[in-house]
Every structure is written in structure tokens, then in C-alpha cells.
From TrEMBL:
<keyword id="KW-0812">Transmembrane</keyword>
<dbReference type="GO" id="GO:0000139">
    <property type="term" value="C:Golgi membrane"/>
</dbReference>
<keyword id="KW-0735">Signal-anchor</keyword>
<keyword id="KW-0808">Transferase</keyword>
<dbReference type="GO" id="GO:0047517">
    <property type="term" value="F:1,4-beta-D-xylan synthase activity"/>
</dbReference>
<protein>
    <recommendedName>
        <fullName>Exostosin GT47 domain-containing protein</fullName>
    </recommendedName>
</protein>
<dbReference type="GO" id="GO:0010417">
    <property type="term" value="P:glucuronoxylan biosynthetic process"/>
</dbReference>
<dbReference type="GO" id="GO:0080116">
    <property type="term" value="F:glucuronoxylan glucuronosyltransferase activity"/>
</dbReference>
<feature type="domain" description="Exostosin GT47">
    <location>
        <begin position="16"/>
        <end position="311"/>
    </location>
</feature>
<keyword id="KW-0328">Glycosyltransferase</keyword>
<keyword id="KW-0333">Golgi apparatus</keyword>
<dbReference type="GO" id="GO:0009834">
    <property type="term" value="P:plant-type secondary cell wall biogenesis"/>
</dbReference>
<comment type="similarity">
    <text>Belongs to the glycosyltransferase 47 family.</text>
</comment>
<dbReference type="Pfam" id="PF03016">
    <property type="entry name" value="Exostosin_GT47"/>
</dbReference>
<dbReference type="InterPro" id="IPR004263">
    <property type="entry name" value="Exostosin"/>
</dbReference>
<dbReference type="InterPro" id="IPR040911">
    <property type="entry name" value="Exostosin_GT47"/>
</dbReference>
């Protein structure tokens, strides 16, 4: 019988794969973090914690000859603006430099041109390395990563920045911070629909057509005065507690599947209302999103009130019961130290499910597939 999503949440990857971690000069990782420790708490911090986790993980092997997968620890999202937003402009040069290093110092990259390597690229549009969608599409995935497996927070079907073989992960949300706000499980859910956040990107997109693909602006325009909807740009100190009092939490993700709101909704048992056409959600082969969430097409946002009030109460209770499952919550978090079934383990499970590698990944003598000079000229400058 085929496993459905949810059946594999508690799989244990230990013994199913071995990972070799390249030792790179600290300028690719630790020194970058030393320069800006804020990287440890922003939503793309998974690249740092995944590195730390693998260094002490039982799946790590020090013998590359027996490795199933090779991991290159490069912190490409740790160049932050004063406001704490990652700037990806140096990332392509940095990643190219790291790949040149591993390909000239070890023989493993050259055997497959990266087809048995994985990289954590948790930026807005993953390895397209740009925060504006138009520019990201124009750039495409860094050519040298075309054969590698990418672990990324961005996930949208039929998008140039998502490869079919990618593993989509949740954004990093500080586990201790959320656990500190847990309230008694039996607290009544007295809020019907809850959302806190921006509806318009006033600086760049005041009309709201681009930001979250217009989904947030549509929510505000249609439901700002609806008593069933507790929505606001204000972010109260009781934010986490309020989520635990809500039946539905809006996740108008648009092009941003890395929104921490999705993680928060699952952790606090608030049914996520996912407004994002063609989205690929974190660990979709393990988390039964269709069963725990409600999917609303972007064009149907004006009918949100009708859609949500017409969901039968027994279906709401079923979703809430599934969300109460600790393994569902565990899979969305990157705790320190790591715990069985957490997001680290789900990444490893995803890699284990891709094994054994097909023999076709190994290049024949003299064969080359990747073009080292492809991509924008600026990317070719030394880092």
C-alpha cells in the first residue's frame, strides 16, 4: 500500500543515508556569521542550523567514499541590511567560489557535476538569488547548481526558481520564543479569522497589486470591517496567544511561501487558510496540508467569508485534531538541540527517499554537462 503524506513524518533517517560535509574556509560560513549574529534569528537561518546539525549528526560520515550525499556549507543569506533583510547580490559569486573550491580539492563534484550534492539556499527565490521575482526569473537558478538538489523555502509549481528535485522547507521560526507563549490547550477559540501583518508594501507597491500577488490587499479591502475577521497591521504583544484563540489563521502567501505565519499556525493549532496559487508547501510529501489546511484560490479572496463559514463543524474539528498531533508541529521547527522528527530530520528523510542514485548521474570520462561561464557576467568575478 502506498504511504500518504503524514505516514512518513516519524521516519528515522539514521541508517538510511550518509552525508559528507565539506570543510570549507571559515570565510564561507562562520566568519560571515561573526560579522552579523542577527543571521541566527532571521527566517532564513536554516542554512546555519542545518550546518551545525550535520556536523554532529549520526548520518555524517568522515569517509567521502561511503557518502550518499555531499553537503557544502555556504551562508548565502547572511549579508543583512540595517533592517535585517538579506541582500543576495554577492551570493552567486560566493556559491561559484565554493563550488570551484570543492571541485578542485576533492574528486566528488567532478564525478557527477553536483548530482549527488545538496545545498541549502533559503532565500526568497532560492538559488535564483534575487528578491524581486522579475529579476529572479531573468537570472534563473545559478547554472552550476542545475544538477544539485536544492533545499529551499521557496516553492511554486512551474516556476524557473524551483527544480522538481528540490526539497521545500519551512522558514526558521525561533522555537523557544513560540513555546514561551503556549496557553492551556482547552482555551476556547473565540476568534473566527485572524491575521496580523502588512497588506501593502507602501514603499514599493502602494497599490497592492504586486505584494503577495495582491492577496493581502484583497483581504483588507474586502474584510476590514467584517466582524468575523480580526485583521490588522498592528502587531500586539499577545500575537501568539491570539493565534491560539483563533479557528482560522490567514496565510496570504502570494509568492512568499517562506512566511513564518504558516509555521506559527501549525504550532498553535490554528487552521491555516492558504491563499497562494500553485504553491509547493514545506515537506509536502510528509505533511498532509490538504487535510490540515484550507486552500483558497487568489481570485476567490472576495468570497472568503462565505467559504470559511460554510465549512462543516465536524471537518473543522478533524483539522484541529490533526493539528494537535505533536509530530505535525515538530516537523515545522529547527530546534537546538535537534529532536526526532523535526525539520532537520525531515530534510534527511527527503534526501533518503531520493536514494539510491540512478547510475546515469555519473559522468563518462571527459563528459561535461555544466557550463562554467554561463550566467550574468557579474557572477563570474572572483569572490
Amino acid at each position: 500500500m502506498l504511504c500518504s503524506a503524514g505516514d512518513v513524518l516519524e521516519d528515522d533517517p539514521v541508517g538510511r543515508l550518509k552525508v559528507f560535509v565539506y570543510e570549507l574556509p571559515s570565510k564561507y560560513n562562520k566568519k560571515i556569521l561573526q560579522k552579523d549574529p542577527r543571521c541566527l534569528t532571521h527566517m532564513f537561518a536554516a542554512e546555519i542550523y542545518m550546518h551545525r546539525f550535520l556536523l554532529s549528526s549520526p548520518v555524517r560520515t568522515l569517509n567521502p567514499e561511503e557518502a550518499d550525499w555531499f553537503y557544502t556549507p555556504v551562508y548565502t543569506t547572511c549579508d543583512l541590511t540595517p533592517n535585517g533583510l538579506p541582500l543576495p547580490f554577492k551570493s552567486p559569486r560566493m556559491m561559484r567560489s565554493a563550488i570551484q573550491l570543492i571541485s578542485s580539492n576533492w574528486p566528488y563534484w567532478n564525478r557527477t557535476e553536483g548530482a549527488d550534492h545538496f545545498f541549502v539556499v533559503p532565500h526568497d527565490f532560492g538559488a535564483c538569488f534575487h528578491y524581486q521575482e522579475e529579476k529572479a526569473i531573468e537570472r534563473g537558478i545559478l547554472p552550476l547548481l542545475q544538477r544539485a538538489t536544492l533545499v529551499q523555502t521557496f516553492g511554486q509549481q512551474n516556476h524557473v526558481c524551483l527544480k522538481e528535485s528540490s526539497i521545500t522547507i519551512p522558514p526558521y521560526a525561533p522555537p523557544q520564543k513560540m513555546q514561551a507563549h503556549l496557553i492551556p490547550e482547552r482555551t476556547p477559540r473565540s476568534i473566527f479569522v485572524y491575521f496580523r501583518g502588512l497588506f501593502y508594501d507602501v514603499g514599493n507597491d502602494p497599490e497592492g497589486g504586486y505584494y503577495a500577488r495582491g492577496a493581502r490587499a484583497a483581504v483588507w479591502e474586502n474584510f476590514k470591517d467584517n466582524p468575523l475577521f480580526d485583521i490588522s497591521t498592528e502587531h500586539p504583544t499577545t500575537y501568539y496567544e491570539d493565534m491560539q484563540r483563533a479557528v482560522f489563521c490567514l496565510c496570504p502567501l502570494g509568492w512568499a511561501p517562506w512566511s513564518p505565519r504558516l509555521v506559527e499556525a501549525v504550532i498553535f493549532g490554528c487552521i491555516p487558510v492558504i491563499i497562494a496559487d500553485d504553491i509547493v508547501l514545506p515537506f509536502a510529501d510528509a505533511i498532509p496540508w490538504e487535510e490540515i489546511g484550507v486552500f483558497v484560490a487568489e481570485k476567490d479572496v472576495p468570497n472568503l467569508d462565505t467559504i470559511l463559514t460554510s465549512i462543516p463543524s465536524d471537518l473543522i474539528l478533524r483539522k484541529q485534531r490533526l493539528l494537535a498531533n505533536p509530530s505535525m508541529k515538530q516537523a515545522m521547527l529547527f530546534p537546538q538541540p535537534a529532536q526526532p522528527g523535526d525539520a532537520f530530520h525531515q530534510v534527511l528523510n527527503g534526501l533518503a527517499r531520493k536514494l539510491p542514485h540512478d547510475k546515469s548521474i555519473y559522468l563518462k570520462s571527459g563528459e561535461k554537462i555544466l557550463n562554467w561561464t554561463a550566467g550574468p557576467v557579474g557572477d563570474l568575478k572572483p569572490w
